[in-house]
Amino acid sequence: MTKEELRNKYKKLRSQLTDDTIEQLSMDIANQLLQLPIWKKSYYHIFLPIVKQKEVNTEYILHILQGKDKNVIISKSNFDDHTLAHFLLTDTTVLEINSWGIPEPKEGIPIPDSIIEVVFVPLLAFDQEGNRVGYGKGFYDKFLSKCSENTIKIGVSFFDPEEKINKVLPTDVRLDFCITPSEIYSFKF
């Protein structure tokens, strides 16, 4: 399938999920994450979900990170050049929902891409080779390409992988893992 066909398919599948189902599946994903060997790192980037898009509720992952006393980083989107600026999430961080429905920090302590060790990556679909389809603006591909080569990239998805995403671009950054409510997919080759 093409990326556009996958976007349409998975937006439709997500739209059929109830709020209760999203909460249960999101909790299952967070519990699966506990099995990964990633918990000795210090700097974890997490996305805050776009509720109207029925994204994975990352609040459960956030609770795990805070319980393990990790440094949590969140982003602010720049829609002029499709880049992300990163900020440390603290007790005093004020969040605003932007015009696209994305919760973002109003301001904060800037964090460089280079020190982020683990990134939880939003997606609409992924395939068995670790390729992902997002909303098509390239925010995360630009961000991930600036991270260290050792940064662990973890997708989270309510759904199982597609066999293959067609027309993957050289600028598309592959995942190291993708977590679903019932499975951990590893793409370390």
UniProtKB/TrEMBL annotation:
<dbReference type="GO" id="GO:0009396">
    <property type="term" value="P:folic acid-containing compound biosynthetic process"/>
</dbReference>
<protein>
    <recommendedName>
        <fullName>5-formyltetrahydrofolate cyclo-ligase</fullName>
        <ecNumber>6.3.3.2</ecNumber>
    </recommendedName>
</protein>
<dbReference type="InterPro" id="IPR024185">
    <property type="entry name" value="FTHF_cligase-like_sf"/>
</dbReference>
<dbReference type="InterPro" id="IPR037171">
    <property type="entry name" value="NagB/RpiA_transferase-like"/>
</dbReference>
<feature type="binding site">
    <location>
        <begin position="3"/>
        <end position="7"/>
    </location>
    <ligand>
        <name>ATP</name>
    </ligand>
</feature>
<feature type="binding site">
    <location>
        <position position="50"/>
    </location>
    <ligand>
        <name>substrate</name>
    </ligand>
</feature>
<keyword id="KW-0436">Ligase</keyword>
<dbReference type="GO" id="GO:0046872">
    <property type="term" value="F:metal ion binding"/>
</dbReference>
<keyword id="KW-0547">Nucleotide-binding</keyword>
<dbReference type="GO" id="GO:0005524">
    <property type="term" value="F:ATP binding"/>
</dbReference>
<dbReference type="Pfam" id="PF01812">
    <property type="entry name" value="5-FTHF_cyc-lig"/>
</dbReference>
<keyword id="KW-0479">Metal-binding</keyword>
<feature type="binding site">
    <location>
        <position position="55"/>
    </location>
    <ligand>
        <name>substrate</name>
    </ligand>
</feature>
<dbReference type="GO" id="GO:0030272">
    <property type="term" value="F:5-formyltetrahydrofolate cyclo-ligase activity"/>
</dbReference>
<keyword id="KW-0460">Magnesium</keyword>
<dbReference type="GO" id="GO:0035999">
    <property type="term" value="P:tetrahydrofolate interconversion"/>
</dbReference>
<keyword id="KW-0067">ATP-binding</keyword>
<comment type="similarity">
    <text>Belongs to the 5-formyltetrahydrofolate cyclo-ligase family.</text>
</comment>
<feature type="binding site">
    <location>
        <begin position="132"/>
        <end position="140"/>
    </location>
    <ligand>
        <name>ATP</name>
    </ligand>
</feature>
<dbReference type="InterPro" id="IPR002698">
    <property type="entry name" value="FTHF_cligase"/>
</dbReference>
